[in-house]
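Review form for a predicted model. The reviewer records the input and the model, then writes brief findings.
Reviewer: anonymous (R2)
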Amino acid sequence: MDKPKMTYFKEEDILHLVISDDRETDSIEISPNITAELNEAGELIGIEIINASGFLRDSVLETTQARLLKLKAA
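Model under review:
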């Protein structure tokens, strides 16, 4: 695979990022709504985010607020 592929399933609010064409043989829940997909060698090949819109909104807000606070403190 040349480039990672990202697919958003609007009705389910799931964001799926594929970084390798390898076959998924295992997965690990790394937080309540985020699953890491692994190949046979245990390497990361994809990430699935459930309730993606809320996750992305919260992540962007947290990052933006942290940067604004650093700028104000400088």
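Findings: The mean pLDDT is 92.
Further findings: The chain has one domain: 5-73.
Recommendation: see findings above.
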